[in-house]
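Entry 14. Ran structure prediction on the chain below.
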Amino acid sequence: MFAIIENGNRQHKVTTGDVLEIDLVGEAEAGQPIQFENVLLANAGGASVIGKPYVSGATVTGEVVDGLVKGPKLEITKFRRRKNVRRHVGHRQKFTSVKITAINVPGLQVVETTPASAN
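Output, structure tokens:
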């Protein structure tokens, strides 16, 4: 079973047990539960539910693994030749690491597909 959730201006495809980095949540501490209510799509094997724009009543629950994770360092350099103009700026985006614990969609039954046996 997987779901596509919206967080801020990004969409994430998540399954139970996934760890993803979302935009920084200010008061998040390790072990704290977090809930995503903007579920765009949910799939349970053979059945799917597509939201218009969101699936009504669907939630994805997660647990904060780390409250503050820093992304890679980005360095921006601007240079104009023969003008003695040099500008250097650095940026490091901050994220919150979340582990997905449950996907709850009312009315969606999980369909287990068994692989075909090779004869």
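The mean pLDDT is 91. Will compare against last week's run tomorrow.
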